[in-house]
Amino acid sequence: MSQVYSVTYLPGLYPTWKRYQGGTAEEIFTYDLVTNEEKNISNFAGTDRNPMWIGDNIYFSSDRNRVLNIFAYDTKTERIEQITNHTEYDVRRPSMGGNKIVYELGGELWELDVTNKETSPVLVEIRADRPEVRPHLKQVDKFVTEYDLSPSGARAVITARGEVFTVPKEDGETRNLTNTSGARSRGAVWSPDGKTIAYLSDDSGEYELYLIDPLGKTKTVRLTQHKDGYRHTLGWSPNSKKIAFTDQTLRLYYLDITTQKVTEIDKANYEDVDVSLDLKPLYDYAWSPDSRYVAYAKMDSNLLYGIYIYSLEEGRSHKVSGDLFSDFGPVFTRDGKHLLFVSNRRFSPTFCDFEWEMVYKNAAGIYALTLQKDGQSLLPFKSDEEPVDSVSKNSKDKASEKTANDKPTLKIDFEGLAERIEMLPLPAGNYRNLAINDSNLYYLNADSGDFNRFEYRSTGPRTLWTFSFQEREQHPVIDGVRSYRLSADGARIIYRREDKIGIIDSKTRTDKRAKYGGEDSLKVEVDQNGLDLSNMKMMLNPMAEWKQMFDETWRMERDFYYEPNMHGLDWRAIHEKYGRLLAYASCRQDIGYIIGELVGELSTSHTYVWGGDLKRKGDKVNVGLLGVDWDTDTATNRYHFKKIYRIPDWTQDIIPPLARPGINVIEGDYLIQINNQEVTADRSIYSYFQNLANRQVTLLVNSRPTVEGAREYTVKPLSDEYILRYLDWVEHNRLVAEESSGGQIGYIHLPDTYTGSAREFPKYFYGQTRKKGLIIDGRFNGGGLDPDIFFQRLSKELLAYWTRRYSHDQTTPFVVTRAHMACLTNRQAGSGGDMVPWEFREKKMGPVIGTRTWGGLVGVSMWIDLVDGGGISAPDYRIYTPGGKWIIENEGVNPDIVVDLHPAEVARGYDAQLMKAIEVLMEKIGSEPPESPEHEPFPIDK
């Protein structure tokens, strides 16, 4: 008796990767249920899936001719024959019934009659209401992407769901200025003179720069005529005559409103990886108050950021900072005498508690450059001396000579400018997003977080602070701010805090936090300043919006995909091919599928599609979990505890519910009641734990299936027990290695190349450095960043010994292992998980054992949001060797010793890959024991 199945190693996670040939490519197997023998009947490097056994043939879909078609395997002759011959669209979701197979093809249903091998479309007419395609009024306050202030701060301009709105601070109506469902507007900013709003829109088919009247009374003006490209980070000049912006080619431009001429300021040739779309260079810029200069930050060839100032009159840039530190975030003072910026030059190491390692956090300070040779310090020494000219004219008289509209004409002496620098009297911190008015500097800061320029993870909410130039002190303004902007006149601040957008006076301070309730001091105070966004509504046309999202995906891949020639594809033809399917869409899920088909044509890893404004959503109910495998006693209709997971995760403070002191539940005990409710096995055990996660629950437990003699315990079920099962698996593997080797071999699992391994690696590394062998298990590694951070510790070279009189001889480095190593890997290791075995081998650390990895190393730096809150990725960098050879992508890393897992062995708990690693290391330990040397005799002074 046999069965057929396809091995789908990562089911459902990577449906957008067409023509995939990496380690997780699906295969068709038959399995003999009597002899426990399995047989691979497809044996193709690409994808074979969806097996259907009809008569003597096993039918399946395969992309052997680049497009998924149906093939048949003859179980008698073992010959494979192609049955369908579609050349444009893939055969999707084949399903058998009798002698026929029905499948989806290009938005239609088709039928295959296996008796005569003929195919034909199935004519289906479904007269559905299709409610999700109907235009409707949509409130979009939950879809805010950008915001800005009017010059006085009386109104906000907010971009949400691709529309541009203006919203009053207090009185007046909310206005939708664009009303263009089907086009996406982005990044609206209000001109300093208040007369117009600039924004980007793809209404023409490409992102262009537009101007619109804040009252919505005059016709929108299109300022640019681009053939392609993505533009972002608009910035008005103070005189409202020019707009700067950045594009996907890492260039900074300015546009003259009158002539509509676009001038390139500079281009970045270096950038960090893994930063978000709108943090791509050269976004970090600021206009001078006289609109004649633009200051910006750019990564130089030393891979540090420098500050540059571009002169519009000269048409060239000057570097104004040094070469030793990263300087960024420039902003001019309003009198034009100084340029302030953030710099990472405060080095106070944090030392590791386990070994001689150090990191540097809180490295930033705020600094000022004096722009004129004869200029004064931003913060001159204080003195109570009476100024000589005070008798003729006091400072109040001088101030009265100026008007609010005066804009100083800047004179910048570039020679020696980098040396005219001073530090503001602020502690080392994580300063970002500088803004200035006449009397104060504003900035965001936080005590902890990821604040390198390569901000892979979101910095999260921070505190908005202000520094008074007069008082020379800083004061907190708002806690928990994600971003903010200062009005053109400097009088108001608009901020985003959680899901609220508010406007406050720029003089707002909060020094006595306890007055408002401690850490969250401003929550009540600030929330009352939140804008009323309830009237931000648009007439949404779903079909038009879906087309916009499809087109935008196509453009984003065109503009950001790592290979300019799109792997030789006719990308325009691909757009037309899948664009034809849009007419068949009846819901947002359909659009996700079509977009997935589009990006899948790139045949590349990390092409993801997710989310969106889905209508069909089930209500979530939490389920409490005890960390238990259950079994049933059919005779008594009771559940009993088959296995209890007891290993805690001390790092994350996750304690198994049944492992707490005083809870004496053991395997084999029966669960009698939960919260006094009788538990029987005719219902799912999890139905009894609905809505009980993280709540105190009483359990009645007995060694017999009766209430009499039962014991009662109070426990707190978890909402997720994955970590308990994971740690149990790791500890099982460690103990197998320990016991099988007589204590000579240690075991470390790397679950990813990011925070998971950052937590797990030290837990198992420091206690096993003295082992003679180490198994580095990279199976199921989910990736993240570069694993070299872990291998640096594992591959340290032992340089010397230090003899001690009363204890063991110590080493340099102090924490180092001499163990022989082996690396395990498998099909489910991908991305950074591909890098684990590859780097392990490149460093000559030992053999790689297991199966070929996923093969996904065209990396992705950014996650691109779509207008309805969904998203896509555009893979934008690929790995190659120092010799210039592409590696790993769509292939994987082949192990030195191939060992696969047999289902029957796995079922009985035998791990052939782990046991092979133990075998290899024991042989190596036997032939090359890592013994410490004996030093020569102690010297004798005669």
Structure in a nutshell:
By secondary structure, the protein is α+β, with helices and mostly antiparallel strands.
Please describe what this structure looks like.
The chain has 942 residues and is of the alpha+beta class. Helices cover 13% and strands 31% of the residues. It has eleven helices and 60 strands. The strands form 17 sheets. Strands 44, 45, 46, 47, 48 and 49 form a six-stranded antiparallel beta sheet that branches. A five-stranded parallel beta sheet has the order 50-51-54-55-60, sandwiched between helices. Helix 3 (542-560) runs parallel beside helix 5 and helix 4 runs antiparallel to helix 5 (588-600). The longest helix is centred in the middle third of the chain and has 19 residues, at 542-560. It is globular and about 100 Å long.
In angstroms, what separates the terminal alpha carbons?
Answer: 87 Å
Largest sheet: 6 strands, antiparallel
Which radius of gyration do the C-alpha atoms yield? 33 Å
Mean pLDDT: 92
Helix content: 10-25%
Oligomeric assembly = single chain
Low-pLDDT ranges = 8-14, 390-405, 512-524
Proportion of residues in extended strands: 25-35%
Shape: globular
Structural class: alpha+beta
Quick one: how many beta strands? 60
User: Count the helices. How many?
Assistant: 11
Topology, please?
Elements: E1 2-7, E2 27-32, E3 38-40, E4 48-54, E5 57-62, E6 69-74, E7 80-82, E8 92-97, E9 100-105, E10 108-113, E11 118-122, E12 136-139, E13 144-149, E14 155-160, E15 163-168, E16 175-176, E17 185-190, E18 197-201, E19 208-212, E20 221-222, E21 231-236, E22 242-247, E23 251-256, E24 262-267, E25 285-287, E26 293-299, E27 305-311, E28 316-319, E29 326-332, E30 338-344, E31 349-351, E32 358-360, E33 364-370, H1 395-400, E34 421-423, E35 432-436, E36 440-445, E37 462-468, E38 473-481, E39 483-486, E40 492-497, E41 500-505, H2 523-527, E42 537-540, H3 542-560, H4 571-579, H5 588-600, E43 609-610, E44 628-633, E45 638-644, E46 670-674, E47 677-678, E48 697-702, E49 711-715, H6 722-740, E50 745-749, H7 755-765, E51 773-777, H8 788-794, E52 800-802, E53 810-812, E54 820-825, H9 832-842, E55 848-850, E56 858-859, E57 863-865, E58 871-873, E59 877-878, E60 897-898, H10 903-907, H11 912-927
Parallel strand pairs: 50-51, 51-54, 54-55, 55-60
Antiparallel strand pairs: 1-2, 2-3, 4-5, 5-6, 6-7, 8-9, 9-10, 10-11, 12-42, 13-14, 14-15, 15-16, 17-18, 18-19, 19-20, 21-22, 22-23, 23-24, 25-26, 26-27, 27-28, 29-30, 30-33, 31-32, 33-34, 35-36, 36-37, 37-38, 39-40, 40-41, 43-58, 44-45, 45-46, 46-47, 46-48, 48-49, 52-53, 56-59, 57-58
Helix pairs in contact: 3-5, 4-5
